[in-house]
C-alpha cells in the first residue's frame, strides 16, 4: 500500500516538475539572464566593443548618484511619471464615464480616444513638434495674427509641460478602455439601489462607482507609472532632451550613454537602478491601493 | 553552507547563460576576420539621409556587383537611431556587418576594425593620415566636408548695406547689427545638434590659430575646453542678448532652420558644405553666398578650415569576406565614377575630381583651396580626439545660454564633463 502511495507521489512530482520546467526555463532565459547580465555589466567598464570588459566594482553606481545630469533626469522622470499618471487617470476615468454607453456616437468616440495610442510615439513626437514648434502650426497662426511666439518647446518649463501633456494625450486611451471595462463590471443593482435611496449622480459615483472601480484604478495607476518611468521615444522625437538637456529622462540617458557615448557599463548601472526604483514604486502603489480597497470593502 | 553552494551555483549559471548569450561572434568575444573567397554577400551598414537613400546606395554599388559576378552587396540601414547606435547592438548580437560607413575609428572602435595601413590604395585618399590612429589606418573616405562656412542671403546683405562679407568676428558682430536694423534675423540657428555644432564651426578657424595644439593640450590637461572656448561663448551670449539670434530657436529642429533660412527671414546660416546639396534643390527668391568663418582681430584670414572626412568607410575585423570587403571599400573610395557620384549626392569635395558644381559649390571649393590647412573640430578624429560624447555634451551646455546660464557657467560645466569622461 505504502509502495503504491510512494509511486503515485513520485509520479505526481515528476508531472509537476515537467509542467513547471518550460515556464521556469522561459522565465530564466527571458528575465533572469538579461537582468543578471545587466547587473554584471553594471559592474564593468564595457564600451560595447571590447572583448574583455574590466570589472570596476561599484564605481558606475558611485558616479551615477553623483552625476548632476543623472539627478536632473531622475527629477524629470519622476515629475513626468507622477504628473502623467495623474493626467492619464483623471482624463481616462473622465472620458470613460462620458462614453460609457452603447450608442453609436459613444462607440465612435471610444475609437477616437484610443486612436493616439495606436500611433508610434516617434510619430506622435514629430506630429506635435510640427504643431507646437517655434515655426509650428500654432505659432504660425499666432504670429500671422500679430501675436508673439509661445515657447512650447524652447523654454525648459514649457517644454516639460508640453512633453507631459503630449504623453498624456498619447497614452490615456488605454486608461479609457480599462476604466470602461471596469465600469461595465459595476453591479447595476447597487447603482439602482443608491438611486432609489435618493443619491445624486455625484453621490452614486463617489460612494458606489468609484469604490467598485478600486482594482481597475490600481491597475491603471501602476501601468501608467511603469510606462511613464520608461519614457524615451517621445523625448527623442519631441524635444531631443532639450532645451539644454532640461527634458532628458532616465531612459533617454540610458540609451544615450550606452549606445552613443559607448558607456554600456554605466548605462547598465542606470538600467539596474531604474528597474529597482520602478519595482519599488509599483509595489508601494499596489500596497497603498490595496489598503485603500480593503478599507472600502470592510 | 549548502545554501551558500546553491546560491553560488545559481549565480554561476546566470552568468554562464549571460555570457553564452553574448557569444556567437559578438559581445565579449573578439573574433578575427577570415576570407570567404571571391564570391558571396558583403553586408554594408550605411547612413540613410534625405540625400543618401537606400535606393541611392543600392544603385551606387550595382556597377561593383556587375563587375564581380557572384558578389552581392547588401545595403543595411541602421536598425537603431543611427549607425553609431546600431553597430554595437549588431556586434553584441554577433551579427556585425562586413563594412560600416559613417563612423570613424577611435580608441574604442579601432580594435574591432581591420588595419588598412598596408593597403597601398589608401594613400592619397582624403584626410587619411589625419584620421590615422597611432599611425595605423582604419578609416578611408571619399571626400572632404568643409565645416566652418557661413552661408548668407545676398539680398539681405545688399539691403543692410554690407558690401563685403566680414573677415573678423568684430566685423561679423557689426554686420549683424546692420542686418537686424534692415529687418532680418541676423543668424539662424536651431535646437537638435545645431546649436553646439554652429558654435564649433564658428570658433574653429580662430581657435586653431590661438591654440594650434588644442587637442594635444586638452588631452595633456595643459588647457581646458571651457577656458579656451569662453571668449566665443561670451560673444555668442552677447549676440543672443542683442537679439541677433532667435531666443525661441531651441523649439526648431535642424530641417526647420534650413527652411527658415530659405524663407528669407534670416540672413546667415552657419553650416558645413553638405548644406550646398540642400541649397541646390531649395525654393527661394534670393541668391545664397558663402564665406569662411571669420577670425579674431589680428589673426590670419582666412583661418584654417574645419574639415571632416566625407563618407568614411571601415572594414570589420570579424568579416568572413575580408578580400571582398576590402575590394568593395577600395572601389568605393578610388573608382572615379563611384567617388564622383558620392561627392555629388551629398555635396562633398575632393581635389582632382571634377563634378558638376553649382555656383555655391564652386565658392566652397575656392574656400577649401584658399584655407591654409584643415583642422578637426569638436570631438575630432584620429589621434586628435576628445572623449566620446563630447559633441553632445557641448551642445547641451551651449543651449544653456538660451535658458539663462552664463558663459562662465557653461564653460565650467563643459570642463567638468571633460574631466569626468577623460
UniProtKB/TrEMBL annotation, chain A:
It is found in: Cell membrane. The keyword Repeat does not apply. Keywords: Cell membrane, Membrane, Transmembrane, Transmembrane helix, Transport. Its main location: membrane. PROSITE patterns: ABC_TM1. One of its GO terms (biological process) is transmembrane transport. The chain crosses the membrane at residues 15-41, 73-99, 111-138, 158-183, 204-229, 264-285. Pfam families: BPD_transp_1. InterPro entries: ABC_transporter_permease, MetI-like, MetI-like_sf. One of its GO terms (cellular component) is plasma membrane. It is a multi-pass membrane protein. Belongs to the binding-protein-dependent transport system permease family. This is Sugar-transporter integral membrane protein. It comes from Actinoallomurus iriomotensis. The lineage of its organism: Bacteria, Bacillati, Actinomycetota, Actinomycetes, Streptosporangiales.
TrEMBL record, chain B:
Keywords: Signal, Transport. The keyword Lyase does not apply. It comes from the Bacteria. InterPro entries: Bact_solute-bd_prot1, SBP. Residues 1-20 form the signal peptide. Belongs to the bacterial solute-binding protein 1 family. This is Solute-binding protein. It comes from Actinoallomurus iriomotensis.
Amino acid at each position: 500500500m505504502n509502495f503504491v502511495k510512494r509511486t503515485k507521489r513520485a509520479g505526481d512530482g515528476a508531472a509537476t516538475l515537467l509542467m513547471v520546467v518550460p515556464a521556469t526555463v522561459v522565465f530564466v532565459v527571458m528575465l533572469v539572464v538579461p537582468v543578471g547580465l545587466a547587473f554584471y555589466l553594471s559592474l564593468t567598464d564595457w564600451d560595447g566593443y571590447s572583448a574583455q570588459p574590466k570589472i570596476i566594482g561599484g564605481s558606475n553606481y558611485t558616479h551615477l548618484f553623483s552625476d548632476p545630469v543623472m539627478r536632473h533626469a531622475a527629477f524629470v522622470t519622476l515629475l513626468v511619471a507622477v504628473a502623467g499618471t495623474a493626467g492619464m487617470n483623471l482624463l481616462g476615468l473622465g472620458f470613460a464615464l462620458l462614453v460609457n454607453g452603447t450608442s453609436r456616437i459613444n462607440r465612435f468616440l471610444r475609437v477616437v480616444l484610443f486612436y493616439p495610442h495606436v500611433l508610434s510615439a516617434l510619430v506622435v513626437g514629430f506630429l506635435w513638434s510640427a504643431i507646437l514648434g517655434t515655426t509650428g502650426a500654432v505659432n504660425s497662426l499666432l504670429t500671422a495674427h500679430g501675436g508673439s511666439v509661445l515657447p512650447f518647446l524652447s523654454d525648459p518649463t514649457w517644454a516639460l509641460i508640453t512633453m507631459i501633456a503630449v504623453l498624456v494625450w498619447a497614452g490615456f486611451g488605454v486608461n479609457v478602455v480599462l476604466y470602461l471595462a471596469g465600469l461595465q463590471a459595476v453591479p447595476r443593482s447597487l447603482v439602482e439601489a443608491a438611486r432609489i435611496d435618493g443619491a445624486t449622480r455625484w453621490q452614486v459615483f463617489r460612494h458606489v462607482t468609484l469604490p467598485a472601480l478600486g482594482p481597475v484604478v490600481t491597475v491603471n495607476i501602476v501601468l501608467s507609472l511603469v510606462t511613464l518611468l520608461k519614457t524615451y521615444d517621445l523625448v527623442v522625437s519631441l524635444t531631443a532632451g532639450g532645451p539644454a538637456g532640461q527634458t532628458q529622462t532616465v531612459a533617454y540617458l540610458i540609451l544615450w550613454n550606452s549606445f552613443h557615448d559607448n558607456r554600456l557599463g554605466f548605462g547598465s548601472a542606470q538600467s539596474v537602478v531604474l528597474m529597482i526604483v520602478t519595482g519599488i514604486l509599483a509595489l508601494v502603489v499596489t500596497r497603498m491601493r490595496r489598503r485603500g480597497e480593503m478599507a472600502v470593502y470592510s | 553552507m549548502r545554501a551558500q553552494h546553491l546560491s553560488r551555483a545559481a549565480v554561476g549559471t546566470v552568468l554562464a547563460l549571460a555570457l553564452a548569450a553574448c557569444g556567437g561572434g559578438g559581445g565579449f568575444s573578439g573574433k578575427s576576420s577570415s576570407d570567404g573567397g571571391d564570391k558571396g554577400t558583403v553586408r554594408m551598414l550605411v547612413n540613410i539621409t534625405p540625400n543618401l537613400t537606400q535606393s541611392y546606395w543600392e544603385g551606387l554599388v550595382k556597377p561593383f556587383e556587375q563587375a564581380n559576378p557572384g558578389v552581392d552587396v547588401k545595403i543595411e540601414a541602421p536598425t537603431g537611431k543611427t549607425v553609431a547606435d546600431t553597430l554595437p547592438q549588431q556586434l553584441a548580437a554577433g551579427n556585425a556587418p562586413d563594412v560600416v560607413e559613417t563612423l570613424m575609428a577611435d580608441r574604442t572602435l579601432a580594435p574591432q576594425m581591420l588595419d588598412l595601413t598596408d593597403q597601398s590604395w589608401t594613400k592619397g585618399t582624403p584626410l587619411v593620415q589625419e584620421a590615422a590612429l597611432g599611425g595605423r589606418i582604419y578609416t578611408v573616405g571619399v571626400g572632404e566636408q568643409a565645416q566652418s562656412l557661413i552661408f548668407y542671403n545676398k539680398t539681405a546683405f545688399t539691403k543692410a548695406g554690407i558690401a563685403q562679407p566680414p573677415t573678423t568676428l568684430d566685423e561679423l558682430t557689426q554686420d549683424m547689427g546692420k542686418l537686424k536694423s534692415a529687418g532680418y534675423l541676423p543668424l539662424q540657428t536651431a535646437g537638435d545638434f545645431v546649436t553646439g555644432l554652429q558654435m564649433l564651426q564658428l570658433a574653429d578657424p580662430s581657435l586653431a590659430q590661438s591654440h594650434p595644439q588644442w587637442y594635444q593640450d586638452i588631452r595633456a590637461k595643459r588647457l581646458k575646453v571651457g577656458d579656451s572656448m569662453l571668449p566665443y561663448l561670451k560673444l555668442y551670449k552677447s549676440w543672443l542678448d542683442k537679439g541677433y539670434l532667435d531666443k525661441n530657436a531651441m523649439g526648431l529642429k535642424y530641417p526647420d532652420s534650413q527652411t527658415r533660412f530659405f524663407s528669407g527671414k534670416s540672413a546667415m546660416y552657419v553650416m558645413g558644405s553638405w548644406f550646398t546639396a540642400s541649397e541646390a534643390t531649395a525654393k527661394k527668391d534670393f541668391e545664397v553666398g558663402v564665406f569662411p568663418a571669420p577670425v579674431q582681430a589680428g589673426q590670419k584670414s582666412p583661418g584654417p578650415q574645419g574639415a571632416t572626412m566625407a563618407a568614411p568607410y571601415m572594414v570589420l575585423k570579424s568579416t568572413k569576406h575580408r578580400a571582398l570587403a576590402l575590394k568593395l571599400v577600395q572601389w568605393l573610395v578610388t573608382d572615379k565614377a563611384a567617388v564622383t557620384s558620392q561627392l555629388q549626392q551629398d555635396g562633398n569635395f575632393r581635389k582632382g575630381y571634377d563634378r558638376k558644381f553649382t555656383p555655391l559649390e564652386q565658392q566652397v571649393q575656392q574656400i577649401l583651396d584658399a584655407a591654409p590647412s584643415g583642422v578637426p573640430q569638436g570631438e575630432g578624429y584620429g589621434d586628435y580626439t576628445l572623449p566620446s560624447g563630447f559633441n553632445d555634451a557641448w551642445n547641451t551646455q551651449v543651449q544653456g545660454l538660451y535658458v539663462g546660464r552664463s558663459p562662465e557657467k557653461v564653460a565650467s560645466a563643459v570642463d567638468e564633463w571633460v574631466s569626468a569622461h577623460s
